[in-house]
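Self-study notes.
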Amino acid sequence: MKAFVVNKYKKKGALHQVNLPEPRVEDHDVLVRIHATAVNLLDSKVRDGEFKPILPYRPPFILGHDVAGTVVKIGPGVRRFKVGDEVYARPRDHRIGTFAEFIAIDQSDVALKPKTLSMAEAASIPLVGLTAWQALVEVAKVKPGQKVFIQAGSGGVGTFAIQLAKHLGATVATTTSTKNVELVKSLGADVVIDYKTQDFEKILSGYDLVLNSQDAKTLDKSFGVLKPGGQLISISGPPDPAFAKELGLNLILKLVLRLLSRGVRKKAKGLGIRYSFLFMRADGQQLGEITSLIESGAIRPIVDKVFPFAKTGEALEYVETGRAKGKVVITVAD
């Protein structure tokens, strides 16, 4: 099969197309012929080795975290799917590799593709959909009437999270550039802040939840919009001790993460705010819940550009510019 691999950790230009054997199918795996995949900033960070301490991939490895395709083979222990099923998934860490023609995925990470979506649209959903679901539903438990601030509303996570928060009954504020104001309003944003001309810290107050996806300066400013008892969930760091414990990291890494997040945790405690770091995980059951929301019309995918498989490197470069609205998709097979 054809695949794009990272031969060694480095910046741009590290993807190389190679021919590899078809993946081995374990007892509880489904082998998926990939019709489409999507690109995330996470891919460039993994390629650059930013997560080596917690995700020690050994080059060469195949990149890619989103997939939509057709099941072509199943392991003897698979009960949830059959050959011919159209599925989508975010494969679990250490088993990524969707920049390829085939991938073997544990059945518990997989869900049936929404019938209302094309393969390209479906491939745009898993990583950002699960990130938003785990932040808003699982961790924050957002309730009707709450006020939620979602940063970078026109990005991959933002476009999904706005729609999910509105479905949950929240009042939603977001930041975006001037050209994307109408887009985020169409997704349900109640308060839209043009970050080029406005400061969200001076406009927002009394919020129940902030979903932070930006830099350390923005994270620090986010405390000012929360009410006492509010919650700050960050998907861009810094990782906290709870995350280190969840991953079962060694003592040294636990200490490093504790030190990295000490200032943020101290400030949060002083303000009576709960801080947590979220690094989303694969979960086919949650993805099934998302499928239901999509098929009901509550959430729609936002796809900016679609690249052919041969231009996977260009797709990754485009995502790195930070100009994408929603997701960038790669078509692998018809």
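Second protein, same conventions, sequence then structure:
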Amino acid sequence: MTAPKRKKARANGEGTIYQRKDGRWEAAGYVLAADGTRKRVRVYGTTRKNAADKLAEKIADSNRGLPVATADSTLGDYLTYWLSSVAVHQLRENTHTRYAACVRLHLIPGLGTKKVARLTAKDVRTFLDRLRTTCQCCTQGLDTERKKCCAVGECCQKRLSTLTVAYVHSVLKSALEHAVREDELPRNIARNVKTTTHQPRRFRPLTAVEARQFLDAARADRLHALYELALRTGLRKGELLGLRWEDLDLTTGTASIRRSLQRTRTGGLTHLPTKTRASERRIALPTECLHSLKEHKQQRNKERETAGSTWQDSGLVFTTPTGRPLDPANLTRRFRGFLNRAGLRRIRFHDLRHSTATLLLEQGVDLVVIKEILGHAHIGVTAGVYAHVRLRLQRQAIDTLSNALSPAGNDPDNPPATAVVR
């Protein structure tokens, strides 16, 4: 008679592991919870080893003193754990700072006491509706010390914008999505809640005439080469400020975009990777930019001689007169001053990038090429941002076709009218 098959011995500290009726493997063990107590957690896997590995990872984190949030935790505890143990390793620092502000100002006050496992779509919908309609001065007591607004019974109705409410919602979805991936939740209920569609900010890019005026006025500015490079290539502000001389090949006329200069809360001015992998790219430089960059290099050499011992060689293309990196906020202020002195319409610095794409589209440049120049991750981003331009070009194309198909279109003595761009 065949001896009964013995169950595999459980390793010390492995927890309880068994196969469920649905075929999945479940592993359970005790770990350090976000509230400081020890709680039993369950994880699931397609194989015994898969479940055991997931539980071992949680136990290892617990043994290192890292709390493990569970579905039994309150949402406040879980969000705190997610920000400090998960999101901090996945997000850029400035993005993590914005996420933390959303959690601190809105999510924890509004939903923090709810249990993660018991959170419903109705809870999220009610929270977002309240967030959308409630004055933030009243909610956060912003004017209590100044004795203004709500503090004196005269509510200013300072509500959050549709964009901010959508951003708070996206942070909650990201946090709960991690709980789903960790098998703490069966589904992400925040995804079942639909928020008001955010209308993209309408921007007014420079027209071709305004762009020529901008370039003419920029020639007299110390940062002429930067402004020209921004308008002719569409580089982001951080990409321009993070550009090094070693990234430029003035002989072949190319620039390699490898990093971005950003100010972070903990590191100050810091060189960070580009926004996305697609943003790390090599672009061709227009002849006009090559000329202005060579002039800028000569000007920089003169500034180095003038600065003498105070010069700090950072290797960057665009710096202060003493060689230090240019702060993005200072560039914004300089740009506003330049527009005022030149008598030009006030725009954001980022609108130079929008102007580049708009002018390229209007010149018939293919959308794929524009995506590569701008460094968008997906062509859908390019198509979505500049949908209004494409609609105008469609109208132009349709009007041209209508003129060609009209009876007058075949009459050599009565040529079709020129299409009007609307």
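Instructor comment on the second fold: The CA atoms of residues 3 and 386 lie 72 Å apart.
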